[in-house]
Records
---
Amino acid sequence: MSLPPTNGTADVPLDPFGVLPKLPSLNNSLGAFIIGTYISLMLYGLTLHQSYRYFRLFPKDLLLMRIIVVATLILETVHTALCMHTCYYYLVVNYSNPAALLEGVWSIRLMPLLTALPVLILLFVGFAAAATAEAFIRPTFADYNKVERQ
């Protein structure tokens, strides 16, 4: 078994990280996702503040309107948690496991549906439900290349 190259004065490798496998760049994929998650967390804070002010300023509003506000708040909370879980899964749990990037974690598979539900546009919710079903049917990102328009 041969050792990595040394500097000639001791048996210490020149580059201790040179023996590790190279990880793929995440700048244009998970880097963008984590920046989007940070921005969405700030907007989620604004949503919490607006919800608090709504219930303080309009306590006698219609029950239907208050239910819509609570439902939106719950869906946004779940969506935010899914974004944070996705970041944690890929960037912490599987930090040095590039093979994990090939498959979608359950939280990223649920995002299309939970992104569409607060919008309450039935056509968009139907499309998001179909995309979520496809994400569970085709668990690897390579399988998405097989989906074609017909």
---
Amino acid sequence: MQSCDMFVLLLVSTALFPLGHTSLPLVINTWPFKNATAAAWRALQSGGSVLDAVEKGCGRCQIEQCDGSVGYGGSPDESGETTLDAMIMNGDTMEVGAVADLRRIKNAIGVARAVMEHTDHTLLVGESASVFAENMGFIAEDLTTNNSVNIFSQWLKGNCQPNYRKNVFPDPSKSCGPYKPSATLKQNMRAQHANTHSHDTIGMVALDQDGHLAAGTSTNGLTHKVPGRVGDSPIVGAGAYADSSAGGAAATGDGDLMMRFLPSYLAVELMRAGADPSAACKTAISRIKRHYSEFFGAIICANTTGHYGAACNKVPGFSQFHFMVWNSESDAPRLKSVDCF
């Protein structure tokens, strides 16, 4: 074979089959939660699976109550209760386990994995999810802390503002609630938009040296939410998505809006079609932005070769998004940032 023909063959082969995965293994997660990144990386380095890595990483944030927005003792709802949402997805088998409105159980990501591995279901919610967790051996504990009690008390003193009710009016004999529908009153009781301080999520994607991929999320939801509210975090394709043949993604932000567009699923499908991870993230955010220009949100993306990216929507007070990365090119978790657009 002539040298020119060999060169052409090499180019074609490289395009179809990248020469090595120099960036693998990889752990990437939302926000500057470096201890979560380190926990996931240690799981991979000790021979654990990508599912182990995601569970350990998100679990670390649950224990540390990252930013008060993950794990117990944060984001009390209108009744003062903290409830948890989580999901985990196996990119090899496309299996998913998720829980929402979980009560009394601190290890939400662990329960989500139990749903995936010990049932034929994908999502369990509310009290039934908690009973399932107890049946699986998870310990029932009070998720309330002095901090969450204080947040709730201050909210009551402020006439239950901000809240997420609209087109309703409260009982006039009380400072707030119970609320009743109104056909004539067009009042939005919400005093402020959801922001980076009212809710948050850890979203994580992990790839091992062999290209196995998993993704997961964990959160305690939106502060002062209506009881029973479930955001994007435990919803497949919204909070996170993983496909070992294409890539993984995880989102964070105003879940009530973002879940309507399945941004994580969209980003993975864009990467499947050949999009760079950064471009895939940006397109997923742009899709939401066309309808809700002032929404708060961001997304991280990683493809099967270990290349990664992120994107966020620029709103007042949120012009840059920070996330963590640890791969074979670094000896510690690295804080990364991307300018919002």
---
Amino acid sequence: QGLLHQAIKEAFYNDSQNERAAAYSYLEQQRGRTEYRKYEVLQAAPFHLTEKWSKLTTIGKAIYYRIENGKELIDTRYYISSAQLSAEELANHVRSHWAVENQLHC
């Protein structure tokens, strides 16, 4: 869904709208790496995303900044949800999803 992806990116990068973003972040150090994670959420309605995606309530952005073996890595991911989520709730849902994924590959 390229148009949806682009609309979500624009919502977060639009300075006037970005002031509305709720944020949650934390620093994690384990297994020889340091990772900073920041999660932001916006309500979808002001961006007219619900016109095409009627159940869309929350859009989210996660930024991962990691230092591992002296290398710096930055990754940004975007999320959509029909649930009304805070930034901390988005963080918990994303982390629990990846915990399930990791268990499947063991």
